[in-house]
Specification:
The chain is of the alpha/beta class. It folds into three domains: 6-64, no CATH class; 71-216, Leucine Dehydrogenase, chain A, domain 1 (Rossmann fold, 3-Layer(aba) Sandwich); 221-384, Rossmann fold (3-Layer(aba) Sandwich). It is 47% helix and 15% strand. It has 18 helices and twelve strands. The strands form two sheets. Strands 9-8-7-6-10-11-12 form a seven-stranded mixed β-sheet, sandwiched between helices. The protein has a five-stranded mixed β-sheet with strand order 1-2-4-3-5, with helices on both faces. Helix 14 (365-373) links the parallel strand 11 (354-356) and strand 12 (377-379). Helix 9 (220-237) packs across helix 10 (255-266), helix 9 packs across helix 16 and helix 17 (407-431) crosses helix 18. It is globular and about 65 Å long. The two termini are 14 Å apart. Mean pLDDT is 95; it is low at 1-10.
């Protein structure tokens, strides 16, 4: 069967022509979805050597199929605040690709969430999950709900309404959500409680990121941040560098950021800055990560309160200025497209040696081009950010076994997964003519694993 595209039916298309034709189709089919189109092109642009070596992918329309979700669900979420006012939000779940296993990906509660952002996250998740080597497909979801400033009871009522709809689309062997921005173990607890009520069953494997006392895995909260640092350390070793003695900037101050800071400090780095949506703090003597943990995880305060405990630190209201602080290593761990041209140029001018994407697609296309053209070591999100979902898959395994591994066991497994991902990316980049290019290596390795399985499964 030939790939379906009328403009190229008269002759065998070159790999370049095939990619261009499919990309045009994706653009035409998804207007007004810039985040998804950005993510799609970032993968497509790496794949020409793959299609040159594997014409069977073209014949079976793998690229067309992999860029269209198996299912996209949007639904109304109606809930009541503490004053009795009714609110309506929009919920989403994209079940993008289940070739390798159940759909797997987090839920994000944030007012900026749109269908385009959900699809971009779900598309990235396909390849990120494939890179872990674990049997999980790609999905993502969430709602345009802002949990900031809401009481626990309001968040509970929202989560219950959200889950009332979502419950009919998920299950331990169908789709396994987890947390993301705005969704921590509190929200997971409320969501899981409502799921149990609706299903009248304790299906622990339907969610990951649960409280360890209630079926969750140890190290899950730390996993994405730890994993990012583990991956970047492998990348640095390849160039004779290390976190030891390096000055590091970490954007954000959520789970990914906090535990990336913690692990970088453990590896001998000095973390000098972090941020939240209100601005950034700069502490030239080194960020006290325990203070940040207390502010964010216990007191739920803004990052500028750090100065109350460390008056020598400095606060800046424009969070994008964090990239103007000189550093050796930058770990963008906040959100998508947080580093653009100006931030990338500032990092290069100040001598940055390495970037590790802890968030999903935190560097826009122009920033990536500037950084890589200036020979900055670059660890792409779908590889460096994969630690969280890797431990989520381990949580699924523990739930299936009715067993829990120790923190040390999970951390050791996580470290090995990140080493394996790095090795796979390096070897794949070399094999397909892009030695040292971790972006190409991650895209190709993730794509090829899913593509080969899709060939085996036939049309679906």
């Amino acid at each position: 069967m030939k790939a379906v595209n009328e403009s190229i039916q008269t002759k065998e298309p070159s790999a370049h022509e095939y990619i261009k034709a499919v990309h045009k189709k994706v653009r035409d089919r998804n207007p007004g979805e810039p985040e998804f189109l950005q993510a799609a092109w970032e993968v497509f642009s790496s794949l020409q050597p793959v299609f040159e070596q594997h014409p069977e992918y073209v014949e079976e329309g793998i690229l067309e199929r992999i860029s269209e979700p198996e299912r996209f669900i949007a639904f109304r979420v109606t809930w009541e605040d503490d004053a009795g006012n009714v609110h309506v939000n929009r919920g989403y779940r994209v079940q993008f690709n289940s070739t390798l296993g159940p759909f797997k990906g987090g839920l994000r509660f944030h007012p900026t969430l749109t269908g385009s952002v959900v699809k971009f996250l779900g598309f990235e998740q396909i390849f990120k999950n494939a890179l872990t080597g674990l049997p999980i497909g790609g999905g993502k979801g969430g709602a345009d709900f802002d949990p900031k400033g809401r009481s626990d009871r309001e968040i509970m009522r929202f989560c219950q309404s959200f889950m009332t709809e979502l419950s009919r689309h998920i299950g331990p062997d169908i789709d396994v959500p987890a947390g993301d921005i705005g969704v921590g173990k509190r929200e997971i607890g409320y969501l899981f409680g409502q799921y149990k009520r609706i299903r009248n069953a304790f299906e622990a494997g339907v969610f990951t990121g649960k409280n360890p006392d209630n079926g969750g895995s140890l190290i899950r909260k730390e996993a994405t941040g730890y994993g990012t640092v583990y991956f970047v350390e492998e990348m640095l070793k390849g160039e004779g560098l290390s976190f030891e003695g390096s000055r590091v900037i970490v954007s954000g101050s959520g789970n990914v950021s906090i535990y990336a800071m913690e692990k970088a400090i453990e590896f001998g780095a000095t973390v000098v800055a972090c941020s939240d949506s209100e601005g950034y703090i700069y502490d030239p003597e080194g960020i006290d990560v325990n203070t940040v943990k207390r502010l964010k995880e216990v007191e739920r305060k803004r990052i500028y309160h750090y100065l109350e405990h460390h008056p020598k630190a400095r606060f800046g209201k424009d969070k994008s200025d964090i990239w103007k602080i000189p550093c050796d290593i930058a770990l963008p761990c906040a959100t998508q497209n947080e580093i653009g041209r100006e931030g990338a140029e500032a990092l290069v001018d100040n001598g940055v040696k390495a970037i590790g994407e802890g968030a999903n697609m935190p560097c826009d296309e122009e920033a990536v081009r500037i950084l890589t053209n200036n020979h900055v070591l670059f660890a792409p999100a779908k590889a460096a950010n994969a630690g969280g979902v890797a431990v989520s898959a381990m949580e699924m395994s523990q739930n299936s076994m009715r067993y829990s591994w120790t923190s040390e066991e999970v951390d050791e497994k996580l470290h090995q997964v990140m080493k394996n991902i790095y090795r796979n990316c390096i070897e794949t980049a070399e094999k397909y003519g892009a030695p040292g290019n971790l972006i190409a290596g991650a895209n190709i390795a993730g794509f090829k694993k899913v593509a080969d399985a899709m060939l085996e499964h036939g049309l679906n």
